[in-house]
Design brief:
It is a single chain. The model has no long low-confidence stretch (mean pLDDT 91). The protein folds into 6 domains: 7-242, TIM Barrel (Alpha-Beta Barrel), CATH 3.20.20.140; 263-358 and 366-398 and 474-522, glyoxalase-related enzyme like fold; 403-466; 524-710, no CATH class; 739-888, DNA polymerase, domain 1 (Orthogonal Bundle), CATH 1.10.150; 896-969, OB fold (Dihydrolipoamide Acetyltransferase, E2P) (Beta Barrel), CATH 2.40.50. 43% of the residues lie in helices and 14% in strands. The strands form 5 sheets. Strands 2, 3, 4, 5, 6, 7 and 8 form a 7-stranded mixed sheet that branches. Strands 10-15-12-11-14-13 form a 6-stranded mixed sheet. It is built from 38 helices and 24 strands. α14 (404-414) crosses α18 (453-465). With 973 residues, the chain is α/β, with parallel strands linked by helices. β7, α5 (156-171) and β8 form a beta-alpha-beta unit. The longest helix has 20 residues, at 707-726.
Length: 973
């Protein structure tokens, strides 16, 4: 007799189950199940995954969720099963009310839902409890037309005691069915995974649980179910499933509409208004023709409202001091987007294709991705919520899963494995492999480590929990805009911004429109640079009028690229050295070429560009298309151009060809290849020429990059380069303000600024502001950047200067800054940071006298009443160096090489800041240098002590993880 499993908790009940829907359905198929259900408490999280797992099988998915129902003074726990579309809508209404317990008013309309009462607790085998609770059970049976007692048996003892419940339900004519709970697929690996996940969720250590204590909450075979439960209980499960008529996946979303009488007319009006403004009412015919075509396609695809909505929130950002990117992705190929000021790259001028964005032959949802400065992205989302309503705008949930490193780290925590061991193992793992087998095949270091059984054991445990969901987050950019209340059709969590409880792909399949509102930190940097340009009395330039700036390309080709978006990596610098970019199109080419696969063409591209190496094209028809990229197909748009020019395809069909080849759609490729060859022959080419050009397209279709995206992003890169070259003060000040003094990026900035003769100098109680200020070619560290100095103290110092003028002396500072304004500890960090150096006292003298100074200031009325101190040059020594590093995170006043006797003959210098230790045959020291602290693993040799200075020589070839080859102790002055 066929049994249908109805009570299964999924892994989306973090820590309460190890059931993954895909594995669950596969196991169910092997056990001859015809129907499987999942359910989590007040949640629909597992629904999409159960749907996907069952989609191409004969197994019917059943969607359930556990809820608490209050009847009178008592609360009962059970599972609601969705029977119909109305049941789904009623269930959404319930969970979107965000209650822990539902009463009869909440359940007044529960049509389309069944309720199965859980009877796992021992009280349900107690006759007196059942008798006393019968009025509640009767109310439940009236509340839910489809009400069942779920019969649960988990031990031999319960096979006897459950008879009390069976007799009760039969006596009172209640419906009942077999209802065993499943929390893991099998009692072995499934249980182990559950046990570990449970410890992770509850943040507890693993304990050895005796086999006898394990509950049999695994998926039963059909035979086992029939042996444990009675035939009518088994039959009832099938009857319930047969009564279900519900499809989870259907169009539920409705694209947001503008409240306009005629959206198409409004869009057309706004587009032509925008293009006339760009061309000052003298629009070339080519642009008018392209706009007419694009508007026609947009209207045919019913996207008029979409463009107006995007234009509206982009316009809101641009008029409210929110930096917006020039465009990204294929949307930059739309002239309508350009005319609406959504994008700022002219698609006709730069040869970008509308069909790459919207193809009339391939109906898909539109996708205009927009970058906003990252610190104001939320402002845009708030604008949408205020305009369209908080119930129609929401973020999208994502589930973080346990990958290789995170799985190893969780095992370390749960099994209390020493941190050093876990770090050693996790640090050698890459982020590319899908599993440990793949990692072992491609990672020699990991493979070698696995020779140790200790690490084998850790990995064997980590494998068990790999790819399980561990927590929730929100999609980095996706925002759902719905024309109807989202609460009606999908689960929505409430908060500052609502979050839809289904992931992006499911929402798109359901017909919901996703807007990509992205946060880009480099737009924030550019915005801050421009604000500083204005503050300094200069005018912010129009970058599009300065695209051939000589200074900019000099900076680029000299590889002065710190904090330049997309091109500051070592690999990018090497590419730039080869290609020697001299135009915005060259920058776009660099961005497109520096990717796996296309990288192979960089040397060829470089030779053809800079050495004018000759090359031969298959046909003269390709010359105009490939001239700017020296005969190499770099962009997807070039494939579209070739298909149009050679084979006579229209834009839509050309894009279908590109897509078919890149997606390896064999049947479609064959048909389009025939059309291409025939079109080329009709266009006057020979068969072999046509075949050769198609082969060229086939070869490069996978490598081709979206030119719309590459070119649009090249403008962000160019803008940052232009500001560095022409507004270097504002550029570096903005960079410094976003970079911590102890950040590795700070070292690079300080080093690079020497090209502009800028230095970063110590803070000063008279000159420093809250953050960096620029004075006489130097950037002065701000008071808020001193570690241990309260921001209120910094504010107080600045206010005292503004009201009473600068501090004339140390005594003047002490008298004007009493104990209530600054503590002894804060006074000391000012000394150590160098903030008092201008008064002419050695820092060591001030530190030695700090107690007396603090005491004297409490009663001193003039500077003469303070302790007498001898002025003199700052005695820079190891103590001074260490204290400044502690106060700032860097040492700016003097180089570490000034502390050793022979500064001309050393490698990299480090001051040992703590007592050395030993591990695994290595000497471990914590070393500091002017701009960084670092743990050094040294070959054993000389005996070292705290405050020694060593010079080390490292492996030059391994930049990511350099190995120390040798070291020596330096003689200190």
């Amino acid at each position: 007799m066929a049994y249908c499993q109805l009570q299964t908790i999924s892994s989306f009940s973090f820590g309460k189950s190890s059931i993954k829907c895909g594995e669950y359905v596969q196991k169910g198929k092997k056990l001859n199940y015809t129907s499987l259900s999942t359910g989590d408490i007040n949640s629909a999280a597992s629904f999409p995954y159960l749907y996907k797992a069952c989609k191409d099988t004969d197994i019917k998915p059943v969607y359930g969720s556990f809820i608490n129902v209050k009847v009178g003074d008592a609360t009962y726990f059970g599972e609601v099963i969705i029977l119909s579309e109305q049941g789904y809508l009623n269930f959404m209404r319930l969970i979107n009310s965000h209650k822990d317990i539902y009463d009869d008013q909440d359940l007044e309309d529960n049509s389309g839902l069944s309720f199965i009462l859980k009877t796992e607790e021992s009280k349900f085998k107690d006759a007196q409890f059942l008798k006393d609770s019968n009025p509640d059970f009767f109310k439940l049976s009236k509340l839910f037309v489809n009400f069942y007692f779920g019969i649960e048996i988990y031990s031999k003892e319960e096979t006897q005691t459950v008879e009390v419940l069976r007799n009760f339900v039969k006596e009172h004519s209640y419906n009942y069915l077999a209802f065993p709970k499943v929390m893991y697929l099998d009692p072995d690996s499934g249980y182990k995974a559950y046990e570990i996940l449970n410890c992770i969720a509850n943040k507890t250590l693993m304990s050895a649980q005796p086999e006898s204590d394990r509950h049999p909450f695994f998926l039963l075979s059909q035979n086992s179910a029939n042996q444990i439960y009675k035939s009518d209980e088994i039959e009832a499960t099938q009857e319930l499933v047969d009564s279900i008529n519900f499809e989870f996946m259907k169009k539920r979303g409705e694209v947001l509409k503008c409240e306009l009488a005629d959206s198409a007319a409004t869009l057309k009006e706004e587009v032509y208004k925008g293009i006339n403004k760009i061309f000052q009412n003298n629009v070339p015919q080519e642009y008018l023709d392209r706009l007419a075509y694009e508007l026609k396609v947009i209207h045919q695809m019913h996207f008029d409202d979409y463009f107006l909505i995007v234009s509206d929130y982009v316009n809101y950002a641009k008029t409210n001091d929110i930096k917006v990117g020039p465009g990204r992705g294929s949307a930059a190929g739309s002239l309508v987007s350009f005319a609406l000021n959504i994008t700022t790259v002219d698609p006709i001028k730069y040869g970008l294709f509308f069909e790459r964005f919207l193809n009339p032959l391939r109906v898909t949802m539109p996708d205009i991705d927009i970058d906003f400065q990252d610190d104001k992205r939320q402002n845009v989302i708030n604008y949408l919520r205020n305009k369209y309503g908080s119930t129609r705008v929401a973020l999208i949930i994502t589930y973080s899963t346990l990958k290789l490193r995170s799985a190893v780290r969780q095992i370390g925590t749960v099994f209390d494995i020493p941190e050093k061991r876990i770090t050693k193992l996790s640090s050698c793992l890459s982020s590319k492999s899908k599993n440990f087998v793949e990692e072992k095949a491609n990672n020699y270091r990991f493979k070698k480590l696995l020779q140790d059984k200790y690490y084998q054991d850790i990995i064997s445990k980590a494998e068990i929990i790999l790819n399980y969901p561990i927590n929730t987050s929100t999609h980095a950019s996706g925002v759902i805009l719905s024309n109807t209340d989202l609460n009606v059709n999908v689960p929505v969590s409430i908060g500052d911004v609502n979050i839809v409880g289904y992931e992006q792909s499911i929402l798109e399949d359901m017909g919901y429109l996703k807007m990509d509102i992205l946060a880009l930190n480099y737009l924030t940097l550019i915005s801050n640079i421009e604000k500083k340009i204005v503050e300094n009395g200069k005018q912010v330039p129009n970058i599009h009028e300065h695209l051939n700036d000589r200074n900019t390309f000099e900076i680029l080709n000299q590889n002065i690229l710190v904090d330049i978006p997309q091109i500051e990596s070592f690999g990018m610098q090497q590419t730039i050295k080869q290609i020697k970019p001299a135009s915005i199109m060259d920058i776009s080419s660099v961005l497109a070429l520096y990717r796996p696969g296309p990288k192979e063409n960089i040397p060829v591209y470089s030779k053809r560009k800079n050495l004018h190496t000759p090359y031969v094209l298959v046909s003269p028809l390709l010359k105009s298309i490939l001239r700017d990229t020296f005969g190499i197909i770099i962009y997807q748009e070039q494939i579209l151009q070739i298909a149009q020019k050679v084979a006579g395809f229209d834009g839509g069909k050309a894009d279908l060809l590109r897509r078919a080849i890149s997606k390896k759609k064999v049947a479609e490729m064959e048909k389009l290849k025939k059309d291409f060859i025939q079109g080329a022959i009709d266009n006057g080419l020979k068969q072999e020429e046509a075949e050769s050009i198609y082969g060229l397209i086939y070869e490069f279709a996978n490598y081709g990059f979206n030119k719309s995206h590459s070119l649009a992003y090249s403008f962000i890169t160019y803008t940052a380069l232009y500001y560095k070259a022409n507004y270097s003060q504002e550029f570096y000040q903005a960079c410094l303000e976003k970079t911590s003094l102890s950040d590795k990026k700070f070292v690079k900035l300080v080093s690079e600024m020497r090209n502009f003769t800028y230095r970063v100098i110590n803070p000063s109680v008279n000159e420093s502001k809250e953050t960096y200020s620029f004075e006489k070619g130097n950037f002065r560290v701000g008071l808020n950047q001193i570690k241990g100095l309260n921001s209120k103290v910094a504010e107080c110092i600045i206010n005292k200067r503004e009201i009473g003028g600068e501090f004339k002396s140390l005594g003047d500072f002490l008298i004007r800054m009493p104990e209530s304004d600054i503590s002894e500890k804060e006074f000391k960090v000012l000394i150590d940071s160098g903030a008092f150096d201008e008064f002419g006292y050695a820092r060591s003298v001030l530190n030695d006298k700090i107690g007396e100074l603090m005491m004297a200031r409490n009663f001193a009325e003039s500077e003469t009443e303070l302790p007498l101190m001898q002025k003199g040059e700052n005695d820079f020594n190891i103590r001074t160096f260490t204290l400044e590093f502690n106060a700032l995170g860097v040492v700016l006043s003097r180089g570490i090489n000034k502390l050793i006797k022979d500064p001309a003959n050393f490698f990299s210098l480090y001051l040992i800041s703590d007592d050395p230790s030993e591990y695994n045959g290595k000497t471990i020291v914590k070393g500091i240098t002017n701009y960084q602290s670092r743990t050094l693993f040294l070959p054993q040799g000389e005996t070292l002590h705290k405050n020694d200075i060593i010079s080390i020589r490292e492996e030059e070839t391994n930049y990511a993880n350099p190995r120390i080859l040798s070291y020596k102790k330096e003689i200190v002055i």
